[in-house]
Write a structure and sequence with these properties.
This protein has eight helices and ten strands. It is globular, with a radius of gyration of 19 Å. It is α/β, with parallel strands linked by helices. About 30% of the residues lie in helices and about 20% in strands. The protein starts with a helix and ends with a strand. It has a single domain (about 5-195, about 230-240), classed as Spore Coat Polysaccharide Biosynthesis Protein SpsA, Chain A (Alpha-Beta Complex). Mean pLDDT is about 80; it is low at about 215-240. Helix 1 (about 5-15) packs across helix 5 (about 100-110). Strands 1, 2, 3, 4, 5, 6, 7, 8, 9 and 10 form a ten-stranded mixed sheet that branches.
C-alpha cells in the first residue's frame, strides 16, 4: 500500500543529517550532486569516487541519501562522509524510509543552482564531467539541461554504448519526437526544473488484477542483472 503524504513527512522528520562542514566550506555551491542509495554494496564506492574525482572551477556539494542499507552500503557511505566532511552531506534515518521520503529529504537540502544525479549503482568515469557540462551551459544560456551518451554495463561483463555524436542543441519538441534516451547519471540541469515540476507523479501507478500478457523467458537468453552501471562518455548535448 502506498504511503500517505503524512506518513512520508513523518519519515522525513525522523531523518537527520550526519555532521559535516559543507555549509561553511561551500556556502554557495553552483552544483548539487545527488545520490540515492539502498543496498548498493558492490557499487557505491565507485559512485562516490567518481563524484569526488571531479575537477571544477566552481563549488559543488555532494548529497547522499542513504536509506538504511544492510549490505555494507551504509558503513561505506558513513566512512566517506567522515573522511570528506567538506563536500559530503549524508541524510539518513535509523530505519528504511523508502524511496519517496529519501528523495524528498535530499531535494529539500539541495542548494545548487544546478543539479546532477548519480544513483548508487552508477558512476562517472570522466573527472571533468561536471566542468564540461557547466562550461556548455555557460556558453549556451538558453539551455537548461545537458545530457550525454552512456555505457551500459551488464552483469555478464558485456557492455553497450549509447552515443549522440554531433547532436548539438535540441528543443523539447525534438526531444519528444525522437525519444532521445537520457541516462539519469548523465544529466545536469537547472534545479528549478526539479522543484517546479511534479516529479513524484511518475512514481504513481495502477494495477489491473487480471492476467493480460504472457512473458516467456527463454533459457538460451542470458539474464541481465537489473543493476546496470552507467558510465559517462564524451559528447554532451542539451535541450531547452
Amino acid at each position: 500500500m502506498a504511503l500517505t503524504n503524512e506518513e512520508i513527512e513523518k519519515r522525513i522528520s525522523d531523518s537527520y543529517e550526519v555532521p559535516n562542514n559543507v555549509l561553511q566550506k561551500a556556502p554557495q555551491p553552483l552544483v548539487t550532486v545527488r545520490t540515492s542509495t539502498f543496498q548498493h554494496g558492490p557499487y557505491i564506492k565507485a559512485c562516490i569516487e567518481g563524484v569526488l574525482s571531479q575537477k571544477t572551477d566552481f563549488e559543488f556539494e555532494f548529497i547522499i541519501g542513504e536509506d538504511y542499507s544492510t549490505d555494507g552500503s551504509r558503513e561505506i557511505v558513513l566512512d566517506y562522509a567522515k573522511r570528506y566532511p567538506d563536500i559530503i552531506r549524508v541524510f539518513t534515518a535509523d530505519y528504511n524510509v523508502g524511496v519517496k521520503a529519501n528523495g524528498r529529504r535530499c531535494a529539500r537540502a539541495t542548494r545548487g543552482k544546478y543539479m546532477a544525479i548519480c544513483e548508487g549503482d552508477d558512476y562517472w568515469s570522466d573527472p571533468l564531467k561536471l566542468q564540461k557540462q557547466i562550461d556548455f551551459l555557460r556558453t549556451n544560456p538558453d539551455c537548461s539541461l545537458v545530457f550525454t551518451g552512456a555505457e551500459i554495463k551488464k552483469a555478464n561483463g558485456e557492455s553497450n554504448t549509447i552515443r549522440y555524436k554531433g547532436l548539438g542543441k535540441i528543443d523539447a519538441n525534438e526531444y519528444v519526437k525522437n525519444s532521445y534516451f537520457m541516462a539519469s547519471c548523465s544529466l545536469l540541469f537547472l534545479n528549478s526544473i526539479y522543484t517546479e515540476a511534479p516529479t513524484e507523479d511518475w512514481m504513481k501507478n495502477g494495477r489491473l488484477d487480471e492476467k493480460i500478457i504472457c512473458w516467456r523467458l527463454c533459457a538460451k537468453i542470458s539474464r541481465i542483472n537489473s543493476r546496470q552501471n552507467w558510465i559517462y562518455r564524451l559528447g554532451y548535448q542539451c535541450c531547452k
